[in-house]
Amino acid sequence: MSPQRRFHQCVISGLRVVLNAQIPEHVTAVAQMDVKLGHRMRPCPDVLVIDTAAADDDDRTFYTPDEVHLVVEIVSPESEDRDRKTKPFRYAEAGIAHFWRVENNDGRPVVYVYELDLATRAYGLTGIHHGRLTVRVPFPIDLDLDKLPR
């Protein structure tokens, strides 16, 4: 894995902190842990929201799709194709219901929010968020994207 840019690190850290302050107690936001999607297929999302019971096991090296409620990928120049095409396709195939893709727009995060269409096993775009992210699913969340903790 190539070194991450500062923007990438700040968004990972900030989202994790803010999500954990707002999401229900039965789930937890963690950073950079593998999700086992199949034999020899374990992508490592930047941020994921998982069952708290799974997060409480400190010996875990991966989580399973049924434990994952939301996956977040922050796009870097080196990972554009994977984060925009390959990973979302795999996450949808595995049945992970919610996916966010974060893009760097002149140093400001822009969040593309997707929800799984169970009939097609593909993600549908539900919104593009600049400055503020407000959603009701998978949990009520209201984030000031320009003021994420660094």
From TrEMBL:
It comes from the Bacteria. Residues 1-139 form the Putative restriction endonuclease domain. InterPro entries: Nuclease_put_TT1808, Restrct_endonuc-II-like, Uma2. It holds the Pfam family Uma2. PANTHER family: SLL1072 PROTEIN, SLR1083 PROTEIN. This is Putative restriction endonuclease domain-containing protein.
